[in-house]
Design brief:
Shape: globular
Radius of gyration: 23 Å
Largest sheet: none
Order of helices and strands: HHHHHHHHHHH
Strand content: under 5%
Length: about 270
């Protein structure tokens, strides 16, 4: 293929935003068709609502309903996000200063990832107990949110910290620098793209962990509790509305952290 043909082909390609819009339209069309064809049970109960029915559920529930429930869940996810990622980054830094602890750190991270979150949640809800007052964040949800982000951040941070240029590390050593100096002057800069990618992945994981924590009960508000109540009332439109709103919130957080990552590490994308 000649250079002119390649240029012409590149010019005919759709921009990323247009591809996203087309994909969303196709997805909603498929959803509408499936809901219209198979969205009713034998007794007439709605199992898969159509987009207009979900929109009507949004309007019926009102903004206050979503604001109250999402405010609690976002607080739980945010606190868990900070705790889980903070401990993961601290553990990764300790491993770089004391390399002999790497095996222990990886075993700990893998254990937190492999232990069934349902089993951990059952223990947490007994040990931590319910919130002190209605509307306050649940300790169980915070713990599960922190647990959900720990593994990915530890792995991402360790891989990033190990990606430092050997020549730069040798220069620090020659000038009398310690392992801590290498960590601050070289390894942290080299690891920043990988760490920020791990923190980006941790956003939806923290939100999901918080929602799962709310499914164990002993709370007054939250997205998880709202889903349970809507399901018990056979209100499929509200259940789907909460699910779609949760996905939108998680996606917004993911995109926001990605935007911060691109602005802080432009060299990782080939920019100046």
């Amino acid at each position: 293929m000649t250079t002119d043909a390649r240029t012409a082909l590149a010019g005919r390609r759709l921009p990323p935003w247009a591809i996203g819009v087309i994909g969303a339209v196709v997805l909603f069309a498929l959803w509408w068709i499936i809901a219209a064809a198979f969205g009713r049970s034998a007794v007439g109960t709605i199992t898969v609502p159509t987009p207009p029915e979900v929109l009507a559920g949004f309007v019926r529930s009102g903004w206050t309903y979503y604001e109250q429930n999402f405010a609690v869940t976002l607080a739980e996810a945010g606190i868990g996000y900070l705790w889980g990622n903070g401990l993961a980054l601290l553990l990764s830094a300790v491993v770089l200063v004391i390399p002999k602890l790497e095996g222990v750190a990886m075993q700990l991270a893998i254990t937190t990832y492999c232990v069934p979150i349902v089993a951990v949640g059952m223990l947490a809800v007994v040990l931590i107990g319910p919130p002190a007052a209605a509307g306050q964040p649940s300790g169980t949800a915070i713990f599960l949110a922190a647990l959900s982000v720990f593994f990915t951040t530890v792995v991402g941070a360790l891989l990033g910290l190990k990606s430092a240029d050997r020549a730069s590390l040798d220069v620090v050593t020659v000038y009398g620098g310690s392992a801590f100096t290498q960590l601050v002057k070289v390894r942290f800069i080299a690891a920043l793209p990988a760490v920020l990618n791990a923190l980006q992945i941790a956003v939806p994981a923290a939100f999901l962990g918080a929602v799962l924590g709310e499914f164990f009960g002993k709370i007054e508000r939250g997205v998880g509790l709202a889903m349970i109540l809507a399901q018990q009332n056979s209100d499929a439109a509200v259940v789907w509305g909460l699910a779609l709103a949760s996905g939108a919130v998680a996606l917004a957080g993911f995109a926001l952290v990605g935007l911060v990552a691109r602005s802080l590490t432009p060299w990782s994308k080939g920019a100046a």
